[in-house]
Amino acid sequence: xxxxxxxxxxxxxxxxxxxxxxxxxxxxxxxxxxxxxxxxxxxxxxxxxxxxxxxxxxxxxxxxxxxxxxxxxxxxxxxxxxxxxxxxxxxxxxxxxxxxxxxxxxxxxxxxxxxxxxxxxxxxxxxxxxxxxxxxxxxxxxxxxxxxxxxxxxxxxxxxxxxxxxxxxxxxxxx
Length: 175
Description:
mainly alpha
């Protein structure tokens, strides 16, 4: 069983580590921390492989693990993050321009606007609109009902648009 588990985790790592990293970096806004949390995701996947019931895809299960790892980290470090924001005049911590080139779905404007949204909005937008998960998969990853995913997304998208408008990244269109 151990060899099977190792082989499967290695295969999953090859297939999904980049997309999981991109999800995590959008959540934590720190390149090094995102690398660490991505690594921790696969360590936990290895440890808890036996809990994967195969009622969802491996990708969905791994994103659920990544979400939990990231939320655990954010809860533990929230006071530190707030302290840093106050003393850096709320300057965004962003990866270098080279990293942005490698993370194509992550434009500076979107990244910055997402960072200003509340966590639940940011999570649902990243999973549904950037990562392309279905409503059902998103509900599994976030451990929410499907109706909560839909309603949160319906509130999150206008909030994102408002953030982009505030910064002049998009221009209000006449209706």
